[in-house]
Design goal:
8-stranded parallel beta sheet, transferase, globular, 3-stranded antiparallel beta sheet, binds erythose-4-phosphate, single chain, TIM Barrel, binds phosphoenolpyruvate
């Protein structure tokens, strides 16, 4: 992986096309210097790892596994700490254990982590008390603080994004391969949680069952290596194309291009224009690609995306992330799934039950109802059941911390509680208890499918 994509024309064809949601960098010379530096940096992930994830997602596409993709809405530079990263990972590992054991299905685990620093926004500006400033577009672009200075896009932030991603990924790799993710630790992941929450107690009962199963296998002389480490992959939205392009390299084994900023990248609802730069960029790289499909997506959109991104019809290459909204999923999704299946493409279908269910509470907080999130996943499962297709997974915004950003859940958060610990820089996330609740309920749905 030594050749830079700059020498490979294919990596830059997106530049001649319209690119939505790009930062308005004020200093182009500074941007050029930063990009040149980024191009010299080592890859964050290896092409072979991306291939391995594509193969795992191939199993999901064939109905043999389930994809759990989750993490922050927007990672923040000041949250690159051991506790925050461990808490997020712990939550995903617990959800993975619940889905694997209660749902009896292999789970492919992918974090919205180690690169999720850029946000597409509905409006270019934000007004508070009569003052209008550029909107916050993620820590990779500008600062969250509502001051003129903070909101100016600063290309130096792209380097901070690289370093923050590297530090995060380093710790994630240590946790997942260094003993922490060993299945014998199922109780340890829950220790600080078990007494304080109903979902923690429910998890503890499941962890005891897993323990008994492990002890039984041990007594039979079986102690597989696979139980000692966890395969875990990184993903983020490939939004700021200058950054993604600077991190795109030629794989010396094959001559193919890989975006080595993360294992999987996705294209968002606001940037999936068929003739736009993002789809062009994604069409040139070999990473597994996700595309968000909102309620306005047409059959033609889906089929053209398949032509552009998965011309070889390779199971695992393309994941459609449906984010329709609980009130629309049963209406909008069936035709898409039906026509895509009829085309012969074997894409992965997963449900993002977050982005179609956002509303503003009277207090001004952007929030989501746990019941809507659950209802959208239910609708997603119903659609697949009626068509005989595979509900391949879920994509959720979550955190391992006990925030109060979404309402509802077993350990119920009320609208009046939102102010208590509302910490997201952009969209509301499920907290740990709500995430575990969701995992148990999805595992049940999967079992009954
Ligand atoms: O996370 C997704 C988007 O960035 C987010 O929903 C946009 O939010 P906005 O409507 O506040 O800009
Ligand atoms: C912006 C996001 O979602 P969408 O593109 O579906 O709005 C996101 O997942 O962060």
């Amino acid at each position: 992986m030594t050749v830079n994509a700059e020498t490979h024309a294919g990596g830059h064809t997106w530049r001649s096309l319209p690119a939505a949601q790009q930062p308005d960098w004020p200093d182009h010379e500074a941007l050029r210097d930063v990009l040149a530096e980024l191009e010299s940096y080592p890859p964050l992930v290896f092409a072979g790892e991306c291939d391995q994830l594509r193969a795992r997602l191939g199993a999901v596409a064939r109905g043999e596994a389930f994809l759990l993709q989750g993490g922050d809405c927007a990672e923040a530079f000041d949250a690159v700490g051991a506790d925050q990263i461990r808490n997020k990972l712990k939550t995903l590992l617990q959800m993975g254990a619940v889905l694997t054991y209660a749902g009896s299905v292999p789970v492919v685990k992918v974090g919205r982590i180690a690169g999720q620093y850029s946000k597409p926004r509905s409006k270019p500006t934000e007004t508070r008390d009569g003052v209008t400033l550029p909107t916050y577009r993620g820590d990779s672009v500008n600062g969250f603080e509502f001051t003129e200075a903070a909101r100016i896009p600063d290309p130096q932030r792209l380097k901070r994004m690289y370093h923050a991603s590297a530090a995060t990924l380093n710790l994630v790799r240590a946790f997942t391969t260094g003993g922490y993710a060993d299945l014998r630790q199922v109780h340890a992941w829950n220790q600080d949680f078990v007494k304080s929450s109903p979902s923690g107690q429910r998890y503890e009962a499941l962890a005891r069952e897993i323990d008994r199963a492990l002890n039984f296998m041990n007594a039979c002389g079986v102690d597989p290596e696979e139980f000692k480490t966890v395969e875990f992959y990184s993903s983020h939205e490939a939004l700021v194309l200058d950054y993604e392009s600077a991190l795109t390299r030629v794989d010396s084994r094959t001559g193919d291009l890989y975006d080595v900023s993360g294992h999987m990248v996705w294209i968002g609802e606001r940037t999936r224009q068929l003739d736009g730069a993002h789809i062009e960029f994604a069409s040139k790289i070999r990473n597994p690609i996700g595309v968000k499909l909102g309620p306005t997506s047409t059959v033609e959109d889906a089929l053209t995306l398949i032509e552009r991104l998965d011309p070889d019809r390779e199971p695992g290459r393309l994941t459609f992330i449906a984010r329709m909204g609980a009130d629309k999923v049963r209406d909008k999704l069936p035709t898409l799934v039906e026509k895509v299946s009829a085309s012969g493409a074997q894409v992965v279908w997963i449900s993002d039950p977050m982005h179609g269910n956002t509303f503003e509470a009277a207090s001004g907080h952007k929030t989501r109802r746990f019941d809507d999130v659950l209802d959208e996943v239910k609708g997603f499962f119903e659609v697949h059941k009626s068509l005989g297709t595979h509900p391949g997974g879920i994509h959720v915004e979550l955190t391992g911390d006990d925030v109060t950003e979404c309402v509802g859940g077993g350990d119920e958060i009320f609208v009046d509680d939102l102010h208590q610990r509302y910490e997201t820089a952009c969209d509301p996330r499920l907290n740990r208890s709500q995430s575990l609740d969701l995992a148990f309920l999805v595992a049940e749905m999967y079992r009954h499918q």
